[in-house]
Write a structure and sequence with these properties.
By secondary structure, chain A is mostly helical. Chain A is built from eleven helices and one strand. Chain A has helices at residues 2-25, 35-45, 56-75, 90-111, 115-146, 151-157, 164-184, 202-205, 211-237, 242-266, 272-296; one strand spanning 48-51. In chain A, helix 5 (115-146) packs across helix 6, helix 5 (115-146) packs parallel to helix 11 (272-296) and helix 7 (164-184) packs antiparallel against helix 9 (211-237). Chain B has three domains: 1-267, no CATH class; 268-501 and 511-546, no CATH class; 615-668, no CATH class. By secondary structure, chain B is mostly helical. The two termini of chain B are 50 Å apart. The chains are: A mainly alpha, B mainly alpha. Chains A and B meet through strand 1, helix 3, helix 4, helix 5 and helix 9 of A and helix 17, helix 18, helix 21, strand 3 and helix 22 of B. Strand 1 (48-51) of chain A pairs parallel with strand 3 (552-555) of chain B, so a sheet runs across the interface.
Amino acid sequence: MLSVILIILAGIFFTGIVIRTKSIASGRKGPGLLQPIKDVIRLFKKGSVYSETTSFIFQIAPTIYFSSIIMAMLVVPFGQSKGLISFNGDFIFFAYVLALGKFFSIISALDTGSSFEGMGASREALYSMFAEPAFFILMGSLAILTGFSSFQEIFSALHLGSYVSYAIATLATFVLLMVAMVENSRMPIDDPKTHLELTMVHEVMILDNSGFDLGLILTAGYLKFAIFGALIFNLFVGMVSYQYAIPLFFAIEAFMAVLVGLIESFMARFRMSHNAQFIVALTSVALLIFFGVLLVSGKFL
Amino acid sequence: MFGLDFLLNISSFLTIIAIISIFFIPYRYKAHLAASAVLFNAFATSFLALHVLTGNNLDFLVSAGSFFGNISIHIDDLSAWFILIINFSSITGVFYGAGYLKAYKDSSARLNLHWILFILFQLSMVWVCMLQHGFAFLVAWEVMSLSSMLLVIYDHNNPKTIRAGINYLVQMHISVAFLSVGFIWIYFQTSSFNFQGIETFSNSTNNILLFLIFFVGFGIKAGFIPLHTWLPHAHPAAPSHVSGVMSGVIVKLGIYGIFRVASFLGSDFILLGEIVLTISIITGIYGILNAAVHRDFKRMLAYCTIENIGIIGIGIGLGMIGIGNGSSLLYYLGFGGALLHVLNHSLFKSLLFYSAGSVYQQTHTRDMDKLGGLIKSMPQTALLFLIGAIAIAGIPPFNGFISEFIIYSGLVEGLKSNNLDQISLIVLTLAGISMIGGISILTFTKTFGTIFLGSAREKMHHKPQEVSYLMLIPQYFIIAAMLSVSFVPLFYIKPISKILHGLFSHFEISEPSAFLSYSENLSKISIYSTLFIGIIVLVWTIRLYVVRNKSKKMEPTWGCSYTAPNTRMQYTGKSFSKPLGKIFSFLLIERKQFHEIDNGEIFPVSRKYATFYHDFFETRIIDRITQRIIYAVNYFKFIQNGRMQSYVLYGIVFIIAIFILTFLDIIQ
């Protein structure tokens, strides 16, 4: 329960911090931290416009997408306290619940019959497919290291062995951060602030959404970032007691948001054709973690 | 008091009567008669199967003359599981088929043959699961292959269909050749055609070669690469209810064979398990990659079957490694996941084939890039296909996730081993199976989106309509079965653990308590799936409440300031999967057909551009081998020269040779 509340709190500020960082880096003052939430509330109050081509899929998809994020949020633990949902192999459930949301967001983009949205949908499907192996190799390696197979058990047993596990956790942070970038369609993979529909991935998929549905999709995006932030936080915290863990959680989420903002300010988006290679490279980093784990656990003999 | 074998006798007897009387009854009632025969056989054999699953194994002996000796009919839990799956798919198939074939009002002779073959097809599949005598097994196997081949070529006026049929026939006989070699080898070693002979044999001899021979034989049926090449030809050619049953069940009998042979093995489990695991993961990735790029939606489903066979194979490989390691949990998770996935795949694959068949019946095309927007004219079919698509992608809350979750758990469990080779293999498998999941999302969003969403890409000759209830109701039944797997998984897990408990009898496999804790996980998952649906309903209700007074306008799709779009400008399935095809261009061979504009051509005329994807293994390996064989065999053409005189001469030479050889005691 704790993790859910904290993730929602972090989600409220996360995108605001990213935007503020980008403004400051480009020499502007920028909007307030709560501006993204205000945007969403404004959207919730608006009416909506639907495309004549669409069917009920288009109307139901944002709801399912949002619910899948909520469901994934329930799986994430907070340090030693379990998530609301916790069982052996819950990370598989986590990945597949997110996949249901993705499935519906892709078909709702195809429902509009727009060629731009189809293009975005195709890219989204491709990139998230490439990100899957990295996530699973990472979780598999951590399962070898700890001998457990649920998020909470893995994370709480991670640092009981040796300090080498912090090195592994650092690499794992890189992988998770990049998976988060792919999942959220952020900078090196996709530029949310691009102005040309041809070069968008996620933004073009939701071109036709408006009103309440768009609000749901945006909120889901904020929460998704905070969820991955919480996973990264869990990599380091382990059994730390709450009075340190909770401030640490917000510090890590804020740090991650600033990092995302800085990456978006100082990096250009990759060429579309290089994205796939980049994400495959992510898998090889995950394999590196796997070999590291084999070394640490002494199975490399 | 009749024995239970009475049921088998009466089912065979009634089948013969049904087959004869199908010729004499009026045209309209043929399908009814076939359906009642299938129903009766299904109930009779399912009764036996349920009797076995809830109690003890059944054994009957049929005396078959002095040469074959007694043929033993043995129904154990494994056979019972497959018999139930076969019967369910056949029943839905026969009812759907009755509706599907109403569109073909042409010839009564064709329908006679079709329904007779369908009855035989079901019965032979059931008998394949019951016979434990190598020779009789091969006979049933052959009846099954021949009847399904003749079912495939229902549309026999089309040369492509005939080609696909012949391709299927030839490959099935290569499979039979391997199986015969296996059974004959055992016969010579143990002088018994009974399956128990395999056990005697494998306790005394090296297992590896024998298993591989059977694996090739059964693997052709199942569609492991590189033995899969019949599937993408036969499935699109067959009528949809036949492809549904074939893809749902007949390929699973290959899996049944592999299970059966594996259960008799005595040693070398680790090596064989690793071989099966490696082949399976490659099969899975290869199958889904091909499924992603094809435009013909029935061919896409055929490749997707190959992918699912790969997933089932991963389970089998894990289970074998589990035996080798002495880890009963891994054994249960691997084989249990495989068995449940056999059931699940037979459900959602037949659902997908039936709903794809409804689309074909209404539009007369299998090219998804000519379709679009069908969700408006065929809403029920669209919903059925969507549910099948979500389930087959292994996404909760449907049943595909349950079996894939068991296999995933098996992989995570396998990671705990201490053997470096195994860990590396299993981690790569984990990465591979997650990639399969990702690509199947791409494949099925593409297929569903292109066929059912957007607007129609080409004008249809007649407007598609929703199909008849006779075709829809079997599909709703399948969905009910699918939901029962995902919400009451323990109902299915219990028989599976009973099957596995008795399957490998000469291994000490206790019912592990850890497996039961995994099954508790499964019921937790179904609770969470319910919760998930609850959250969706809640959010939806809130949405309805919030937007109830808000304005709602219908406008054209945002065309990025371009004001005159037409429906041909929609993104096609081909372009959707093109980036994937480009990345994997070393496996997905694309051939393009076009004329470039020549140098001197000043007034270019309209021209065509077409691309096709080729099967890597078919064009690069199998075709080349067959070409070499044909080339070599060419040199012996003079023997078959068409002159009756030479053929008579061959006969005389043969008889004289036999005579002389016997006379000289060289052969006896």
